[in-house]
Amino acid sequence: MRTALRLAEGGPATGVNPRVGCVILDAEGRTIAEGFHRGAGTAHAEVDALSSLPEGGARGATAVVTLEPCNHWGLTGPCSEALIAAGVARVVYAVADPGRHSSGGAERLREAGVEVIGGVLADEAERFLGDWLTAARLGRPHITVKWASTLDGRTAAADGTSRWITGAAARQRVHEQREASDAIVVGTGTVLADDPSLTARGDAGELLPKQPTPVVVGTRAVPKDAAVFRHPHPVIFEGTHDLHEVVADLHQRGFRRVYVEGGPTLASAFVAAGLVDEFAIYLAPALLGGPKLALGDIGADTIGDQRKLRILDVERLGVDLYLRAVPVPTSHQEA
């Protein structure tokens, strides 16, 4: 299964399809084929692996795959049927497919007499597929909210100046995270105040190979000469303050990873709406004081309403700290 997970890393990390890897073993447990999914419209991992075998070469074999084989017709056929037709005797998978249309592969395989084992290295596969699973289970993109602040939580000085709170290493990590995202989201307030380009750039200021699509949320007009209009991708304007409408539209457009990099107003709105899957927090060893906080009102009027986080990683980037954290579900959410 770990080999299958390594193979899955070869697939595209963004877009609507999951990264899936497959290893086929003969009756003696020897690897006879490997495959992975290369993106929408291409063979799924199981079919990719089967295609390297001669006719009948998979009869009696075991297919080890990171995600439950699909059971539907999309741009390609169902993997469950391909495995049955190939004569595979056993299928081992890590994570069940949560898709409303694509799930059911394990049941179909069992109906055909194929032995099926699920949940192998499920935790590792869940982490690997985290953003795609969010989209599949919740019907919206995986949303990361990022901010950079001083240790006392200030994102700007009292006069509004905010450039270079963190150092070069932290800023470069942000650009790498932008590149790994399908879309970068800001509010009209950030566009009007900072005129950001919303591009992903390298150390020398060059554009990185992959660029997130810029998304601007809000109803205020943006100047026609704003830097966002010079982005390699056309800007998407979401002329609403209803974030549920925004994320539904981004999901409909096929975005899987969304990086929210707006100011405190937008970040607070995402937190208050319960639409944050991950936080990317950059802390500079400095103090500013004053009113310019990273978050405003998030609906926590009493200590019992606090939004608790679980810190996944802490990393030093030059003199700065990078914290990666996820929300801790409340008992109501868990239910």
From TrEMBL:
EC number from the UniProt entry: 3.5.4.26, 1.1.1.193
InterPro entries from the UniProt entry: APOBEC/CMP_deaminase_Zn-bd, CMP_dCMP_dom, Cytidine_deaminase-like, DHFR-like_dom_sf, Eubact_RibD, RibDG_C, Riboflavin_Biosynth_HTPR
Entry binding sites for substrate: 162, 178, 198, 201, 261
Cofactor note text: Binds 1 zinc ion.
Active-site residues (renumbered): 46 (proton donor)
PROSITE patterns recorded: CYT_DCMP_DEAMINASES_1, CYT_DCMP_DEAMINASES_2
Cofactor(s), by name: Zn(2+)
Binding site for Zn(2+): 44, 70, 79
Pathway given in the UniProt record: Cofactor biosynthesis; riboflavin biosynthesis; 5-amino-6-(D-ribitylamino)uracil from GTP: step 3/4; Cofactor biosynthesis; riboflavin biosynthesis; 5-amino-6-(D-ribitylamino)uracil from GTP: step 2/4
Pfam families per UniProt: dCMP_cyt_deam_1, RibD_C
Catalytic reaction annotation: 5-amino-6-(5-phospho-D-ribitylamino)uracil + NADP(+) = 5-amino-6-(5-phospho-D-ribosylamino)uracil + NADPH + H(+); 2,5-diamino-6-hydroxy-4-(5-phosphoribosylamino)-pyrimidine + H2O + H(+) = 5-amino-6-(5-phospho-D-ribosylamino)uracil + NH4(+)
Binding residue positions for NADP(+): 148, 164, 190, 194, 219, 263-269
Entry keywords, A to Z: Hydrolase, Metal-binding, Multifunctional enzyme, NADP, Oxidoreductase, Riboflavin biosynthesis, Zinc
One GO term (biological process): riboflavin biosynthetic process
Boundaries of every CMP/dCMP-type deaminase domain copy: 1-116
Main function: Converts 2,5-diamino-6-(ribosylamino)-4(3h)-pyrimidinone 5'-phosphate into 5-amino-6-(ribosylamino)-2,4(1h,3h)-pyrimidinedione 5'-phosphate.
PANTHER family reported in the protein's UniProt record: 2,5-DIAMINO-6-RIBOSYLAMINO-4(3H)-PYRIMIDINONE 5'-PHOSPHATE REDUCTASE, DIHYDROFOLATE REDUCTASE FAMILY PROTEIN (AFU_ORTHOLOGUE AFUA_8G06820)
Family the UniProt entry places it in: In the N-terminal section; belongs to the cytidine and deoxycytidylate deaminase family.
Name this polypeptide is given: Riboflavin biosynthesis protein RibD
Annotated source species: Leifsonia shinshuensis
